[in-house]
Design a protein that fits this description.
Elements lengths: L17 H29 L13 H83 L2 H4 L6 H12 L4 E2 L8 E2 L1 H10 L9 H4 L4 E3 L9 E4 L7 E7 L2 E7 L3 E6 L7 E4 L2
Helix pairs in contact: 4-5
């Protein structure tokens, strides 16, 4: 064993100050921190970073504005729909009015034509009656037996003439058949019934009940008619001397009048 083995070392112990220890600790800490940071960075690099964006919360004023805007949009849509409905109704009304106007014009034109035709027929009828009136007036005043036939009633004709004259002054009533109220055909039918002759009830049929005769060759007891044969609207009895007796209308009743008062269209002879 060396001779110095049990000799204590004469080296002085190192005097380590607190600052030196602290510095070494800091360095060690810094190294550890860097290592930790590196490890953390590696871990973060391995996992994707997710960012969460937090939307701002609607305030009460903003909510009210949104609601008001929605109401305004809804009201505008309702207004557009209402206007569309009104426009459609107006278009329909205009179309109907146009159709009604066309129909009214068509009817007015038809009425105008009908009135013109009626006026033409009335004028022609007046002209015809005027001609007949002139002829009858001339023959009545002449009193010629050759132009107006016999003016003296005999036999059955006398009985018919006597009966109708007896009813002069009676009342005219449509549908009347006596004994004190008559219409035109009711009086004629009753007169011929006195001599056993049955006539049809109405003027249209009475105007074709016998033989057609000329108005210039009348005899007492002949049936006078107004209108066309088969569609006459009035009848009376010729009583001679250019006179007739008939139930004329509600205002006159049964009267005796000259042929010129209301010239008949034709005559038939039953006797």
């Amino acid at each position: 064993m060396p001779h110095t083995a049990h000799i204590r070392s004469h080296r002085k112990p190192r005097n380590r100050s607190a600052s030196t220890i602290a510095m070494r600790a800091g360095v060690a800490g810094g190294v550890l921190s860097l290592a930790a940071a590196g490890a953390s960075a590696s871990a973060n690099a391995a996992e994707p970073v997710t960012q969460t964006l937090e939307l701002p919360t609607l305030t009460a004023d903003l909510s009210a504005q949104v609601a008001q805007s929605a109401d305004a949009t809804q009201q505008a849509a309702a207004n557009y729909q209402l206007q569309a409905e009104r426009d459609a109704a107006a278009a329909k009304a205009a179309k109907q009015a146009k159709s009604d106007l066309a129909e009214a014009k068509k009817k007015a034109e038809a009425r105008k034509k009908a009135a013109a035709e009626a006026a033409r027929k009335a004028a022609a009828e007046r002209a015809s009656r005027s001609t007949v009136r002139t002829t009858l007036s001339t023959t009545a005043h002449a009193g010629s037996s050759t132009s107006t036939g016999s003016s003296t009633a005999t036999g059955s004709a006398a009985a018919i003439v006597s009966f109708v004259k007896a009813q002069i002054g009676d009342t005219y009533i449509s549908g009347g058949t006596g004994p004190n109220t008559w219409d035109c055909s009711g009086l004629v039918q009753a007169a011929f019934k006195q001599v056993g002759i049955s006539l049809p009830r109405v003027s249209q049929d009475q105007s074709t009940a016998g033989t057609q005769v000329s108005l210039s060759n009348l005899q007492p007891g002949d049936i006078l008619y107004w209108g066309s044969a088969g569609s006459a609207y009035h009848v009376a009895v010729y009583v001679g001397d250019g006179m007739f007796v008939g139930a004329q209308n509600p205002s006159t009743g049964v009267v005796e009048k000259p042929l010129s008062y209301d010239p008949p269209t034709g005559a038939v002879r039953v006797l």
